[in-house]
Amino acid sequence: MKTLLFKTNINCGGCIKAVTPTLNQEAGAGNWQVDTANPDKILTVTSDKLTPEQVVQAVENAGFKIQAA
């Protein structure tokens, strides 16, 4: 499994709720998390099959900003 890290603007429970269906579909439930306590709002995705580009596209499609950490 590889771990991908991204800076996002997912900063609250409501934001996490909004992006959850998209990330669950792409990465699978339990394979991602957002550290909203971190100033950079770090999204961690653990996956063998996803590329960083796929994660960026999924998060942007959900309406959030994202960049590689």
UniProtKB/TrEMBL annotation:
PROSITE patterns per the UniProt record, alphabetical: HMA_2 (PS50846)
One Pfam family from the record: HMA
Residues covered by the HMA domain: 1-67
Domain of life: Bacteria
Protein name, as recorded: Heavy-metal-associated domain-containing protein
